[in-house]
Amino acid sequence: MFKKPRLLAGLLSLTLLLTACGGGAANNGAGENTGNSAATEADAEGKTKIVFWHGMGGSTGEALDKLVDQYNQSQDAVVVESSYQGAYDETLTKLRSSASGEGVGADLVQIFDLGTTFMSESGLIEPMQTYVDKDGYDISVLEPNVLAYYTINGSLNSMPFNSSTPILYYNKDMFEAAGIEEVPTNLEEIIALKDDITSKTDAKFPISIDIYGWYMEQWFSKQEEHIFDQGNGREGAPTKVAFDENGCMEDIITTWKKGIDEEAIANPGREGSQGQFVAGEAAMTLASTANLRQMLDEVGGRFEVGTAYYPAVNPEGKGGVSIGGASLWMIDSGDEARKDATWDFVKFLMSPEVQAQWNADTGYFPVNTEAQETETFKKNIEEFPQFQTALDQLHDSSPESQGALSGVNQEARQIYEAAVESFFGGATDAKEAVEAMASQVNSALDIYNEANQ
Within its chain, how far is the Cα of 169 from the centroid? Predict the structure, then answer.
């Protein structure tokens, strides 16, 4: 039977007040919510029908629908109906809203990384671990650092699907003209390149960086500091933030603003850095690995695009990166046939050839390591060698780098971005900005924890 979660009412109101931006890939393509709900019995052709809600628009959505069509044509027992629900945050909000009524109209839902704790504690799901154990599914073929993010208390609650990390993109032609032989590894080094880049190239700035909470979260991983207490939310439900005590948030935003004030870091607001990089106004930018294909298409061969590891804040930052993107969550409908069918579809999506195709079509790295042995993957790497950076960076990271877990990550990201905007605009100083972040995120945690007692 469908289990209505206890914590939805309070969180739904909080989410509507603080709607966060989408996750680690562009979701601005055309797409409509068809409003389809899952059938309770096999369809007229005798197939078990399942509904798949996702947040992939545009060309990425087309690539996903292609996989759905492939699955539907590959067998005669199951038919999958995919339904675009809007960007990542919209998908999660719609799920919360529908679950507060009579039940979720989907069997499988794609939820971005920030929704992990909420989904795990919602009472809505059938953990993927149930089927991993039942089917004897070998998860050792999946990327361990990706599994680490979605594994809580030893249980794989969702199946990682479209995973990405942020990387540094740089203009190789400008680096050569400026005499830069080594790619910078932190913001302080980037700021120090200002004179060489602006005097020897046409770039106005060494780098352009969007105000994006995901990047801020990555800097915590790089500096090996926690955002929340309770082991960054991985040893228990967090009760408060840790960044106001460990000083990392203040270091991040202070260094960032120093670069802006010295005209070494362009501040395009919440978006625009990729455009400045493509136009040659900035020699570097930060973006998801999933943006690689789009970036190369927009540059169009006007200069050579290089990729490198995500930079730390300062030389002391030796940590790795945490994944972004989304995973697949099975809804506990109480219908065993539909859940079995959902698992079969999930296994199809995780197969080596499908993951290799997904990688080639979208730029998300393949979660199944065996995909790297396929001809599809090898041809894609040969055509786009810059993508190897994403895999190398993932493998050089560790499970300890896999970011914070909390039921308010979605809201917290929006809080960080608003506070940074205020700080960069001169309305607050660094200490006031951090205090504002801590106060608001702690309040959100209190609401969440009270609802989830």
Answer: 18
